[in-house]
Design goal:
about 280 residues; alpha/beta; Rossmann fold; Arc Repressor Mutant, subunit A; 2 domains; five-stranded parallel sheet; five-stranded antiparallel sheet; 9 helices; 12 strands
Length: about 280
Amino acid sequence: MPLPAIALTVNVDCVPLSSETQRKLEFRREENDRARSRISGPARFRLGAGLPMEPVAIICSQDAELYMILEYILGVDGYKTELAGNVEEAAERTRETFPAAVILDCRPGGLPVAALCAKLKQDPTTRAILLVALIAPGAEDQHIALLKAGVDDSLVRPLVPAKLLFSLRSKRTTVARSNVHGHHVLTFGDMEIRPDSFRVRRGESEMQLGAIEFRLLRHLLENPREVFSREDLIAIAWPNNIHVDTRTVDVHVSRLRKSLQKLGPGVSIRTVRSAGYMLDDTNSS
């Protein structure tokens, strides 16, 4: 059933918080904490654990009104939202719950969100999580700083809900889950890879890769649509005590690409001229 909120343009500029709004903000945070305290051990979603029943989006903001608006918008796509009132809390909750996305409230003079982006993208366990920034009109310097820090998308205020949902839908990737037997599985698009057996599956087709090709594919899959230089891939896939030239990387990527093509169209490795390689879920290569 279509919801009218999708067609709205929402003004989420900063407004002074009333005592009632502050009370609602504190209630939301306490509600989040109570819900989180009931989830422990294997039930908590993190790299190597099972997917939750619904995707989680952490909203890093000090604005309760914005949080409640985003809670409603994201609910359209079935997201459960959690509020983080500062970057330290956002980083902690991201590492603990491994959410599908982190929404960053980027107000001039507000929270140091660029530092949070860089911290999350530098951590191998959180770098694949989608980061979306909400920025003010004309904040070009902040936009550039966020891009350098690794933000996946930036949306300019006033917020159009449909644009936010489109960003989440188009960029969101499931990067970890477990199958019915409890084995760890990484997925991107319609492709699954199993780290414990070096196997790759798409639909009913399955193949086994060598160690080098598997390390390359796993890293590209954990960081989809991100370009990696040949030097980056050498550091990722080969031992430190082995000398590898860039031509060797090309040979292994070519082998990996041909292996993926045997599984049919879909996920492919793209060559980015003068830059390196990236994993994409298109038919181009």
